[in-house]
Every structure is written in structure tokens, then in C-alpha cells.
Amino acid sequence: MKIDYRKCGDYFIPNLVISNNTNNLKLGKYGKMRLHYLKTQKKAEYTILLMEDKLSEHLQEIDETATARYNLLMKQFAEQENITEKLKATNQLEWVSKMNSIKNKVEEIIFNELIYV
């Protein structure tokens, strides 16, 4: 890999350009949360990913993985607790209450395993 330099006074400074693809990304909820976490809490890791031009790839991967895991866990927990369409039709408030409880559990798992690591 060849690096171009420009002369600035008596010094040669490398012409380094970081491609900032994060503005063009179509990130979902979890990708945006990971980006915010990296920027505010893990500044060194954020800078390394940015300098190696791997930030957008990392965020996309986290977003896709977290979304897939969310869908899978929601389905598994709903089956485990016998939350069915029949319950939804007969007792909507109980169904909503149970689904919100499951959602909170699933998001806590995702946050601890993928986002805030």
C-alpha cells in the first residue's frame, strides 16, 4: 500500500482520508444504539473501527444479528409461556401484558450480549 504525502512547511504529512459511511447507512434500532454506545462509552474501540474502515460493517452486523435474535427469542418465549392467538382474541390486556414482559426480557438479553459489550 502506497501513502501519498504533502509538504507542509518543513514536514511531510500523509494524505489520510477516512471514508465516513455511517451517514449513508440504513441502521435499525440496535445498530443506532451500538453506534451511540461506541461513541460515548468505548471511544477507543470506535476510533479503531473508524480508522480501519470497519465501523459500518460492524454496525450493520450488530443490527442484523440483534434483530434476528430478537425475533427468535420473542417466538421462543411466547411458545414457552403459552401465549397464543387464542389468548389475544379472548383477553387482550393479558396478552399485551405478557408480550411486553417478554419484550423487556428479550431486549435486556440483546443489550447485555450484543449492544453494551
3D structure, described in words:
- The protein is mainly alpha-helical.
- It has one domain.
- Helices cover 67% and strands 7% of the residues.
- The chain contains five helices and two strands, in the order ββααααα.
- A two-stranded antiparallel sheet has the order 1-2.
- Strand 1 (5-8) and strand 2 form a beta hairpin.
- Helix 1 (29-41) packs across helix 2 and helix 3 packs antiparallel against helix 5 (92-115).
- It is rod-shaped.
- The two termini are 33 Å apart.
What order do the helices and strands come in, and which of them pair?
Blueprint: E1 5-8, E2 11-14, H1 29-41, H2 43-51, H3 55-80, H4 85-90, H5 92-115
Antiparallel strand pairs: 1-2
Helix pairs in contact: 1-2, 1-3, 3-5
What are the salient characteristics of this protein?
117 residues; mainly alpha; two-stranded antiparallel ribbon; 7% strand
Q: What's the quick description here?
A:
The protein is mostly helical.
* Number of beta strands: 2
**C-alpha termini separation:** 33 Å
Number of helices: 5
Query: What number of structural domains do the residues give?
Result: 1
Structural class by secondary-structure content: mainly alpha
Helix content: 55-70%
Main beta sheet, described? 2 strands, antiparallel
Low-confidence spans: none
Mind telling me the C-alpha Rg? 22 Å
The order of strands across the largest sheet is 1-2
> Which range does the strand content fall in?
5-15%
Global shape: rod-shaped
Kindly report the average pLDDT value. 91
